[in-house]
Amino acid sequence: MISLIQYDRLRTVILRQGIVTMPHIHPEANLRKDLGYKAGDLRELARLIEDEFHLKLTAEQIKEISTIRSIVGLLNQVQLVSTPVEGLH
């Protein structure tokens, strides 16, 4: 599960774009409908998330991004997959 620190990092990334302000960022906020994101904004957000969380998102994963909650779910999924299992090399 994504930690509060990671959620704060995600909010910081979203705020850094300058499209929305803090009061508009909540789990159910739809990036396109509620926050006014366009396709290019979503691509930029995906790039910023990749940089901030040191991961690589596929085109399919980026298409799944619709709400703040969906980003959190995606981060959980990607980080779970990329987390090494103790004792395996």
TrEMBL record:
InterPro entries: ACP-like_sf, PP-bd_ACP. Gene3D superfamilies: ACP-like. Signal peptide: none annotated. Pfam families: PP-binding (PF00550). It comes from the Bacteria. Residues 23-75 form the Carrier domain. This is Phosphopantetheine-binding protein. It comes from Spirosoma soli.
